[in-house]
Amino acid sequence: MLGSQLFRVSRVGIYLPIAEMSVNMVILLAMGGAVGFLSGMFGVGGGFLITPLLIFYNVPPAIAVATGANQVIASSFSGALAHFKRGTLDVKLGCVLLAGGIVGSSLGVTVFAYLRSLGQLDLIVSLLYVAFLGSVGGLMMVESLNAIRRARGGNRISLKKPGQHNWVHRLPLKMRFRASKIFVSVIPVLALGAIIGFLASIMGVGGGFIMVPALIYLLKVPTNVVIGTSLFQIIFVAAFTTVMHSTANQTVDVVLAFLLMVGGVAGAQYGARVGQKLRGEQLRALLAALVLAVALRLAFDLFVEPESLYSLGDIAA
Amino acid sequence: MTMQRAAAVLLLILLAPAQSFAQIREGERIEIGLSTDRVSITSDFAGANLTIFGALDNADPLISRQGRYDIIVVLEGPPQVVVVRKKSRVLGMWINTQSVAFQDVPASYSVAMTRAPQDITDAENYKRLALRPGNIHLKPLNPDGEPRTIQEFTAALRARKEAVGLYVELVGGVQFLSQNLFRATLKLAPNVSVGTHKARAFLFRNGVFVQETSAALTIRKAGLEQRIFDFAHQQSLLYGIAAVLLAILTGWLGRMVFKKD
């Protein structure tokens, strides 16, 4: 008798057609759910969490970046809808940010290709992550802890203090954003959008973790409006990134993205509800802690001697 | 000249009976067969056990009874180009600084054998047959590199492949079912490479290599998985747009399902 037979090992595994590997479905759904919960709570797309998580789970980095962008669209769209219904989304502000964002993204994709041709792209991306997450997280943590301390002291101080204007408010071409209750020049708004679009396409994220603090501290937009507006803008940046990666590298895995989305969308709904119950400064302190934790994890990989000095890769990477 | 020719003819005549005698004695033949030459990876694929059945023809019953026949079955993945990178410390950071590319590196290499390798034959034989992970021929893409560096990176390549379970040995993975029939069990990893894999079986008698046989096995994606892959590669713009629409639809449906407030 000559022959061969195949026996299935497990049924929770699912095969990813683009990543060409089998993964555990339950783990991916849970991963998507956890990130979705945080993204709904803080108004960040979760790209800066999902991409490192996928890489820790042995998904090739190029696929993790592109697929992360794809999954971010779903949770941002779902979150933005919730904020739109509640009236905590400034469509006008979001559109101006987006106009800048598209310009920045296009530039970023070109720089991305250039860095890749030089080699060491992974290193630059890691350094950017550590630098941006570290400084944004650190600043937010200091500010929000001060705010909490002041609130405990009895006198409630809102971030938006009437009469207190910074240099941003002295620029020309002013525009009124009613939902955000601000009257500012479009120049810093466009520039902010462009910078975030640029970084987003290099780092493979939506940019919410930079957008949220920048809107709060630089443009003095109220925290509750910031989250919806940031999500609104992230939808488009992530969609642009997804299409770019798909055409340039064919690294978007829809099966992987779909699993993460299903978990993420469910998580985002609960996250948004918890976010509503927390006070602004508490929310900011928690987001700061999360951002700092990711920065530390990445710095750890960069500075601590790896278990094996050698790694295997293909010729293109 | 004629003397030499005559000597050669004489030598042939002398050798001929010995050769035919050897053919009668060493007439064992090994055969393996695969009931399917294709394995399809479906969406629920999570690795699999591949069982290969084989037969030993003209086996000497005495040697069979003494258990002096040994079989080694190897399943070798498709050849690939692999870059081995080495990190070193630069300004306190661990950065990839050196790399060596290798060609025709088997994506996977899994070995099943009847007994512990040292009990089958000696290291010299394994080396000659390029058998076992330590003896796979690994050729650098650029052969002009410094020999010591190439040696270091070759060892690292083997060690990494072994660490992730792509180069494995399974002692006892081949079992005799009767005097003539045997069964080999090999593991296909969850991240098994698609492409043509080669199954090879080696027969040893009393520690001496007798014969080798091989069969091809194609591992490929099943219908839907293959279609998604083709769509992504052939119509990448449309695929990207479809991925975005799928995400928006999922987000919207999720909102509908969970809408309570």
Give the terminus-to-terminus CA distance of chain A: 46 Å
Alpha-carbon Rg of chain B, integer:
26 Å
Oligomer classification: heterodimer
What is the overall pLDDT average of chain B? 83
Number of strands of chain A: 6
Task: Describe it.
The complex is a heterodimer of chains A (317) and B (261). Residues 1-10 of chain A have low confidence and may be disordered. Helix content of chain A is 68%, strand content 8%. In chain A, the strands form 2 sheets. Chain A has a two-stranded antiparallel ribbon with strand order 2-3. A two-stranded antiparallel sheet of chain A has the order 4-5. Chain A has helices spanning 25-42, 47-56, 61-86, 91-118, 121-152, 186-203, 208-217, 223-249, 254-277, 280-303, and strands at residues 4-8, 13-16, 21-24, 174-177, 182-185, 310-313. By secondary structure, chain B is of the alpha+beta class. Chain B folds into 2 domains: 26-221, Immunoglobulin-like (Sandwich); 223-256, no CATH class. Chain B has helices spanning 2-25, 61-66, 117-120, 123-128, 147-163, 223-234, 236-258; strands at 29-33, 38-41, 48-57, 69-76, 79-90, 93-106, 109-113, 139-140, 167-171, 174-176, 181-188, 195-205, 208-221. In chain B, helix 6 (223-234) crosses helix 7. Residues 10-24 of chain B have low confidence and may be disordered.
Core attributes:
heterodimer, A: 317 residues, mainly alpha, two-stranded antiparallel sheet, 6 strands, disordered N terminus, B: 261 residues, alpha+beta, Immunoglobulin-like, 2 domains, six-stranded mixed sheet, four-stranded antiparallel sheet, 7 helices, globular
